[in-house]
Design a protein that fits this description.
CATH architecture of the largest domain: Alpha-Beta Barrel
Mean pLDDT: 96
Strand content: 25-35%
Helix content: 25-40%
Low-confidence stretches: none
Distance between the termini: 45 Å
Bound molecules: pyridoxal-5'-phosphate
Number of helices: 12
Amino acid sequence: MNYIRLKKNNLLVDNISASSLVKKYKTPFYCYSYSQLKKNFYDFVTAFKSIKPIVCFSVKSNPNIALLRELKKMGSGADVVSIGELLKAIKAGINTKKIVFSGVGKTEEEIRKAIEKNILLINIESESEAIQINKISKKMSKITSVGVRLNPNVVGKTNKKISTGSKDDKFGLNFNDCINLCKKINKMKNLKLDGLSVHIGSQITNIKPFKQVLVIINKIIKKSKINFKFIDLGGGMGISYANNEKKLDLNQYAKLVKKFLKKKKSQIIFEPGRSIVGNTSALISKIIYIKKSNKKNLVILDAGMNDLIRPALYKAHHKIIPLKKNNKQILRNIEFVGPICESSDKFLNQKNFSKIYEGDFVAITDVGAYGMSLASNYNTRPKVAEVMVSGSKHKLIKKRQSLESLVNS
Ligand SMILES: *Cc1c(COP(=O)(O)O)cnc(C)c1O
């Protein structure tokens, strides 16, 4: 069951009707289901329970600190890609021995902080970075645990803009460079090579690329003769956005990893983002105007691409549902758009939709991952509020940015 769903033509989030929330919170706002978050995290852990992975939630998918605190309570670690995310994860109480640091361009300041905080792994993406981390570690009289990020040249069959594991992408090291760098790192006195990491992209719903990655990792292990303490398989597990879209079968993935681990002592790390938070949130928005144009009904929302950029940036599909569904009448040929001065500020086309009027409310669904985290102030619009519903209770977990703060800078 999904905790954000229509029940008797009313949109419910956990046990609260979204219609009651719009009386308390100004739209647009992100509304999260705590029950869904908990279900997703524990479903993930359960699917992989035979291999007991360290689950490092990908903070970039959703950096809300209240959400991070909840995930921490469930036992999550964190995958961070900046000093800001690192400090936030620590502030949320996440054990530093469950934090991994990824990214192609870590600065000296970021590396220093990661070393100072004794995190589990810094995943290295180039020889220059290895030299830099070794140098900083030496200055700090530390021996730093690092991983090497392999670019397995596996195409995740996902949107080009969210693919990271093909040889043309900027991430990681190709097969031979990876092995050579492992050898070099083993000679660097202030580095300890503990991990091998991969992350091939996001929203991958087919098991095949994950299977191919495991084959390539096996080859690296054989050729380098290194028994990595940690194998970090990254994230990328796809979820279902459209009605007929299948999500990645985590149980099938778990079977593959279990087989892969036979005769190995490595500990698996995962860095899921989207699969943990994607379907935990809806962006609740008000219809400002409905304008007829070329036989189309343009439904102009108070939410725009600055609040949710995925449709404009990735052509991502997000279902839109009314807070109160009208079963009897329909509105045809709808285009949901935002108020931003950009033609790409569009959310969705619908042939048929429940009859809606100006002043009604709708929910843009499955926006928990890369929704708020990619929001901007474009058009001098404040970032919207975030609300968490748990059972029959709701609370503000992030305030709407004040207009003054924007107007004065
Ligand atoms: C973005 C990212 C993730 C999370 O990916 P999802 O598709 O959200 O699961 C994990 N690891 C790394 C290195 C990333 O860059």
